[in-house]
Amino acid sequence: SPRREALATQKIIMSLGETGLLKLVNKLQASCTLLGDTGSGDSADGAGGGVDLPSLWEALPSIVVVGGQSSGKSSVLEAVVGHDFLPRGSGIVTRRPLLLQLIQTTSAEEEYGTFLHKKNQKFHDYEQIRREIDAETHRSLGKYSISSDPINLTIRSPSVPNLTLVDLPGLTKVAVEGQPASIVRDIENMARQFIQGKNAIILAVTPANADAATSDALRLAKEVDPAGERTIGVLTKLDIMDRGTDAHLILTNRNATLKHGWIGIVNRSQADIDGKKNLASARRAEMEFFTSHPAYRGLHNVGTPALSKKLSTFLEKTIRDQIPHIQNFVLEGIQALQAELRSLGGPAMASRGEMLHMVLTLCREFDRAYETLLDRGKNGGESILGVFESGLKDSIHKQNFKGIFSLANVATTINEADGYQPHLIAPEMGYRRLIEQGLGLLRAPCERCVDDIHQLLCGMVQRVVGESVPMLNSFRVLKTEVLSASLKTLDKLKEEAKAMVVTMVEMEKSYLTAEFFRNLEATEAAAGGAPAAAAAPAGEAAQSSSTAAGISSDFEEKHLRRIGAHCSAYVKSVVMQMRQTVPKACVYCQVQASRGSLLEALTTKVASAAVDSVSSIHSNKEKDYLARLLEEDESVARRRDACARRLELLNKARDDIAAAL
């Protein structure tokens, strides 16, 4: 069961011991630095390609040392290591984070340091280590700038505790000559980035000869860790406090209280450093100071050995608690990165066959996605139905049938149709002209229906290109070509559909069904000679006053009304018919015709690249065309590279954890 597996894993973790846990974390952190995961903006991934990638660095516990310039931060690290190895000088000396991995060895093993950027070289002299840190900083940054890209140093020695420490540039108040004005803010932002991760153990170094309430290190620590769950205070320079003052209240955690308390240490003075006083002697002097001072005598949280023990214990406990979470993080990160890499596609293809296969594959994916949206996708096919059932009907309703079949227009149209020779019985030419006028109003709504369907299909194409085929986003030129080819095809289908519906309207105008009027006469005769009731196609019979129409008698008005009613009834019957046939024309000419045909022109052109050419020049042209289609956006290439590097890191981490457990 999952619970049983979790208990078994926890048992294995408990059996690893401090050394095994620290070695595992050291190994994982070294891999992070090597593959560009620093947890501070992923600068090593380049040009922002690593933004939002799962960061293993931030999932790993580490001790981050933060403090102001001249707070004794460097001396604390050297005291823990037991050797002078950090560059010294005025101003900002540490300009890149130093990832310091301390591995305790047996006395029989050799003592040396190694850098990740020179992993095949062993440094047995700590003065050489100091010079290499300084040289690597200048190689990458020049004289004044700073960077969050860490220098990775591993020291193996029998005299060091098993710890992983990150030394950051010292916080400063003002920029000195030659430094950019933003350096104060830049250093603080860098420190914040390294300590804001929930697995960063913050070692806040504060000098005792300054007010702890104004400590920049404590201020930043409280900003990212307000509950103090992962902050340890280090109080330095206790030996140079003003006479008559001491830090007893702070060290007993009754002033400037921290959940995990404070550790007091005494660093070497500048005179001691200039006089080459070794750290072994400095440690003895440190313990003599604490045992002889009445305010600190009897305290157990003072001295460099107490600091090393506190840090080792705290780090070991944090690692034990975090290993199951790290395992889950690694597995989830691998799955997420694999999915993103699939969506980004593979690296650039070299052969013409690979290029052709990729282009045709993406075209097929586009066709499938378009047809899916057309058939059942949200805001797809049902939108087309809405045009037929509401849009076409409303558009017809808005036409001016009322004016066509008004008494005035009926009278005018009949008189104009008769000309100088009035009709004898029924004004047939007048009938035809009135009906043609009424049917002529159908052209605009039918063309509008075609346009509406065209807009919907274009919108669906744009959605598919932008959302449904993610890999198209990797190839800007191909994406543009797919969109352009699809829209051109839809434009062509629109014109064909328009021609068809216009033809349908003209067909109705060109030949009137005489049987309709015979049936109408029969219906009227059966009703006792009263005109058959007929409403205008827009839904209301349109009639104007006989006075406005210039009608001289009731008989003439009745006669004109009868003609208007007949023509209106005929047009209404055609309207009902067109409301059924126009959608069919649109579906046939636009919707169905677009299935599988949108990219015919593009795929035909692309497929020609597969034909063996007689001349190598032609072959190169075809390959150039395919290469242009698959020309990748630089940001996509950077993102793929960053994802691949991070996936490599997480796969290695998974294997390392599995081997350790």
Walk me through the structure.
There is one protein chain. The protein is of the alpha/beta class. It contains 23 helices and 9 strands. A hairpin with a 2-residue loop joins strand 3 and strand 4.
Provide the descriptors you would attach to this structure in a database record.
9 strands; 23 helices; 59% helix; 8% strand; nine-stranded mixed sheet; 661 residues; alpha/beta; single chain
Task: Indicate the structural class.
Answer: alpha/beta
Low-confidence stretches: 5-16, 42-48, 538-548, 612-618
Radius of gyration: 43 Å
The number of helical runs is 23
Number of strands: 9
Residue share in helices?
55-70%
Q: What is the 3D shape?
A: elongated
Instruction: For the record, give the distance between the C-alpha atoms at the N and C termini, rounded to a whole number.
Output: 19 Å
Mean pLDDT: 81
Share in β-strands: 5-15%
Spatial sequence of strands, sheet with the most strands: 4-3-5-2-6-1-7-8-9
Major sheet size, sense and barrel closure: 9 strands, mixed
The gist of it:
This protein has 661 residues and is an alpha/beta fold. The chain contains 23 helices and nine strands.
Helices and strands in order:
Elements: H1 2-34, H2 56-59, E1 62-67, H3 73-81, E2 98-104, E3 112-115, E4 118-123, H4 126-141, E5 151-157, E6 163-167, H5 183-195, E7 200-207, H6 216-224, E8 231-236, H7 248-251, E9 262-264, H8 270-274, H9 279-292, H10 304-344, H11 352-376, H12 381-397, H13 401-404, H14 407-418, H15 428-440, H16 443-468, H17 476-510, H18 514-526, H19 546-549, H20 554-594, H21 600-607, H22 616-629, H23 634-660
Parallel strand pairs: 1-6, 1-7, 2-5, 7-8, 8-9
Antiparallel strand pairs: 2-6, 3-4, 3-5
Helix pairs in contact: 1-10, 1-23, 10-23, 11-16, 11-22, 12-16, 12-20, 14-15, 15-17, 15-20, 16-17, 16-20, 17-20
